[in-house]
Specification:
By secondary structure, this protein is an all-alpha fold. Helix content is 64%, strand content 0%.
């Protein structure tokens, strides 16, 4: 008898970790809504801000300082004349 593989694709495993994170996120949003609706919160709503660590900034600067000269060198080689000097 063939096994119904489509049934296996519909199975979703929800671990206790996932359940805990869902409950924490729900609790956080519920707290924000409650504070906003009662007028107790002034700047409780999280802002869309991305923070970059100092190490990441250094890595980004190093990557940029390396990639720019490489681009210049490769673009100059492609535009040089093929007759030689």
């Amino acid at each position: 008898m063939p096994v119904d593989k489509s049934y296996d694709e519909r199975i979703m495993v929800i671990t206790p970790f996932h359940t805990q994170k869902i409950i924490e996120a729900y609790n956080q949003q519920l707290t924000i809504r409650t504070r906003v609706s009662t007028g107790k919160a002034k700047d409780v709503v999280p802002k869309d801000v991305v923070t970059i660590s100092a190490e990441s900034k250094r890595q980004l600067a190093a990557d940029k300082s390396f990639s720019e000269p490489v681009k210049l060198l490769t673009s100059n080689q492609g535009s040089s004349k093929k007759g030689g000097v």
